[in-house]
């Protein structure tokens, strides 16, 4: 069992959160994209990052596959490891948001309790975005060939096939990526960011 840190004290930054916001022209926060594999999380996250960056936002994507090449390289896909992966990402995303960034995460994050933990870390700056494409649509797309492997028994604990996905109950935004185009979905996301993150001109 891991040992908890002791004899530690939170240290305040010399630059306040609001000072960062005023400099950047927008609030920091977390856009937590969740949905089945194939629902469009990575596609939308990276294109949203590009478009926000082009208009002056400090934006950065934390993507599931990329995180598992480094920060979570030691974790598998058991329920316990999934929980630890999302705990780590939630804390890192909160740090980025505290630095004034618009953090876009692309993680299946199948368990409500894990997303609730990420929300707790992100506090009022956490925005859950549900990419609501159903299993049939995602399996038909199967961009990485993962569903085929899961159906053949080559991947265990695969969300939607041999592991559960608990859909959000009260997300800040739901996008039907099974019916909407990438461009339509991006328009919804950009409008949402402008409404909830951009500061009024002083």
Report on this model:
Helix 2 packs across helix 8 (182-196) and helix 4 runs parallel beside helix 5. The mean pLDDT is 93. Helix content is 42%, strand content 12%. The chain has a single domain (17-195), classed as P-loop containing nucleotide triphosphate hydrolases (Rossmann fold, 3-Layer(aba) Sandwich). Strands 2-3-1-4-5 form a 5-stranded parallel β-sheet, sandwiched between helices. With 202 residues, the chain is an alpha/beta fold. It starts with 16 loop residues before the first helix and ends in a 6-residue tail after the last helix. It is globular. It has helices at residues 17-24, 41-54, 64-67, 79-98, 112-122, 135-141, 146-151, 182-196; strands spanning 29-34, 59-63, 102-106, 126-131, 173-175. The protein is built from 8 helices and 5 strands, in the order H-E-H-E-H-H-E-H-E-H-H-E-H.
Itemize the secondary structure elements and their pairings.
Elements: H1 17-24, E1 29-34, H2 41-54, E2 59-63, H3 64-67, H4 79-98, E3 102-106, H5 112-122, E4 126-131, H6 135-141, H7 146-151, E5 173-175, H8 182-196
Parallel strand pairs: 1-3, 1-4, 2-3, 4-5
- Quaternary structure type: single chain
Known CATH architecture: 3-Layer(aba) Sandwich
The overall strand count is 5
How would you sum up the global shape?
A: globular
CATH topology: Rossmann fold
Main sheet? 5 strands, parallel
Short description:
The protein has 202 residues and is an alpha/beta fold. The chain has helices at 17-24, 41-54, 64-67, 79-98, 112-122, 135-141, 146-151, 182-196; strands at 29-34, 59-63, 102-106, 126-131, 173-175.
